[in-house]
Each structure stands twice: as C-alpha cells, then as structure tokens.
Amino acid sequence: MSTHSPRTGCLLINLGTPDSPKPRDVRAYLKEFLSDPRVVDLSAVGRWLLVNLVILPFRPKKSAKAYETIWKPDGSPLLLHCRDLQQAVQERLGPEVPVELGMRYGNPSIPRALKALQDHGVERIVVLPLYPQNASSSTGSSLELVYRELGSWWDVPAISVVDSFYADPGYIEACKEVASPVIAQQPDHVLFSFHGLPERHLSRSSGGYSICTGECGPIGPANRNCYRGQSFATARAIARSLDIPAEKYSVSFQSRLGTTPWIRPFTDEVLVELARKGVKRLAVFSPAFTADCLETLEEIAIRARASFLSNGGEELQLIPSLNAHPRWVDAVAAMLASHLPAPKMAPLTPGKTSHETH
Fold first, then answer.
1. Is residue 281 within 8 Å of 318, Cβ to Cβ?
2. What kind and span of H or E run contains 64?
3. How far is 271 from 247, CA to CA, in rounded Å?
4. Which of 183, 310, 331, 358 has an alpha carbon 20 to 30 Å from 201's alpha carbon atom?
5. Which CATH number does 8-164+326-337 carry?
6. pLDDT digits (tens, 9 = 90+) for 157-191
7. Is the peptide bond before 108 cis (omega within 30 degrees of 0)?
8. Burial bucket for residue 265 (CB in 10 Å: 0-12, 13-18, 19+)
9. Which CATH architecture is the domain 169-318 placed in?
C-alpha cells in the first residue's frame, strides 16, 4: 500500500493593482481589468469599443491622480497588505504548506503564483479568493483563470476551493475586532458600504432571482448566489457582533460605473441623505474589501468624507479593512486548514492569537 501523501499548497487571490500610479501603468491595469468579459459583460465587439474608445482615452489620467493620493513609498497599499497577510498565513501554516499570492489583474499574477506552487512540487492546491461575497466578476473570474491555467499543466493537480465566507465566524470576528475601536467612539450612525454590481449580474448569477430594493432577507436556495443578499447578511452579522441596533446602521453600494442600472442604494447618495437628516458623526466600513485599496482609502476616506462634510456632517471615520490583522490571519489560516488533508497549523504561542504584524 502506498504511503505517499501529496504535498498541498495554498493560493490567496485578490483583485489586483497597477504597478505604479503612473498613467501608463494604470492604463495597462484598467485595460486588463475592463477587457474581462465577466466584468464588462457585453459582446466582444461592444466591449472592445467601450474600453478602447470610451474609457481608456480618458480614465487612466483621472485614476492615476486618485492612486497618487493613496500610494505608499514602497508601493500599492493593497499589495502591501496582501503580502503581509500571505507571510503571516505562511508562518501560521508552517513551511510544509507553501502559500502564494496571486492577483487577478496586474502583478503578482495568478499564473506566476501557480508556477511558484508548481516549483514547490505541490500535487494539491487550496484556493482562497479573498472576496467575502460571491460575484462572477470577482470570484468567478479569478477561479476561471485558475482553472484555465491549471488545465494547461501536464500533471493537473487536485484543487479545493474555499467557498464564499460572507458569514464565516472567523471573518465576522475579525471584522468586529477591526471595527471595535471606532464603534467605541459611539458614532451617530454606521454605514456598511459594499462594492456595487450591475443589476444584470445578479439576475444572471441567481437564475433570474428578482432584484431587491430594500433589505435582502436571509440567504436560502433561491438567493444562495445573490451578492446583494450576501452583503446584507454580512452587515447584519457584523452589526450583531458589535451590538449596533438596526436603526443605527445602513447598507449601501459604491463604485458604480456607466449608465446601466446598478444595485441600490448608492453610497454617494446615502451619505448625503444621512448628513441632511442630521447625522454628524459617521463611521463607514467596507466589508467587501479585505485589504485597504483605492475604493476605501480614496473613494471613501477622501471623496466620500468631503461630500459628507459639505452636506452638513462633521466627521466621517473610515473603519480600516482587515488587512493583516491577527484575527484575520487566524480566520484565513483556519479556512485553508479545513481543506488540508491533515492538521498543519503550528501551535500558537501562549498569549498570542497569531502572527504579529506591524
């Protein structure tokens, strides 16, 4: 009887970032991102015309200026946080389980990360897309690229995928830990702002499931793949963990693009409504983003704050993303370990919950 135990590696995936805030690098990133048929789900000709004749001639310069406002001396905040997470999870799982990071767009790419795992001699791969709520344009696109790349290998490894973790107890506990210092300051209201999607993406994903306009109910068979429903489920779980009453928080969706209908309510409109209703101190949390990025650091902390203040608000505080918080490291390691063939996590040091990050 064979006693061979296949070596297992882990792949963490996030969306990606330009190599620099220079317009040429932002343009290359946007072209790759917007040329994805799961992101811009038009015909090939329609998508090419929109991306190359409407968006790319103008948007890179505008986006480059936005990236410049958040860029760190050593690189993109998203990439830095993801690398910190990768390193902490690697330490948590131990040297026998290699952990690599791949970005769906930009660098380090998913093919490069998979090649690194191949060089480690892995025969099984556990894949964790770092998107809590399921969407074809993020989770689906990332997994499609993984399957396509691995399908080109001569020896195709076994694959295990960590499911959407919008209600995972470890994820919710990490969100609670990150948000608690801000909530302890007793803001007047908390806004949970998730990334938006075109309504048609939800209709296609859920097999024709109707688009909600109010609060989505519990997740069940009819809406099990509904991004909007999963977002509301996440917000309810975090609010319960922090003892935030229903009247003290709202859910909205940010980052819409173009003129087609997107899921509502819109973050930029809700911010104004809250300010005009007398909310003075607002906390904003974006749980769809597990690492701080352009959408949190620039769209919310800069532009949304300016809009809120100009409409009568007095303070908008951004709750940071999970980044490489020790509780989040624990949660990621636990999700990966549940797919490993045997317990692989190194024992915790007494008094510590996980890798200490700075």
1. no
2. helix 59-70
3. 15
4. 331
5. 3.40.50.1400
6. 999 999 999 999 999 999 999 999 999 999 999 99
7. yes
8. middle
9. 3-Layer(aba) Sandwich (3.40)
SS3 percent helix, strand, coil of the chain, rounded to 5, is: 45, 15, 40
Q: Which of 131, 130, 177 is nearest to 353 (CA)?
A: 177
CB 160 within 8 A of CB 128: no
The continuous run of DSSP H or E covering 10 comes out as: strand 8-17
For the full predicted model, state whether its pTM sits above 0.85. yes
Count, residues in the chain: 358
Q: For 33-90, how does the pLDDT look when each residue is reduced to its tens digit (9 = 90+)?
A: 999 999 999 999 999 999 999 999 999 999 999 999 999 999 999 999 999 999 999 9
Instruction: Please report, as a single letter, which amino acid is at residue 165.
Output: F
Give one word for 16, left, alpha or beta, with left for phi > 0 and alpha for psi -120 to 50. left
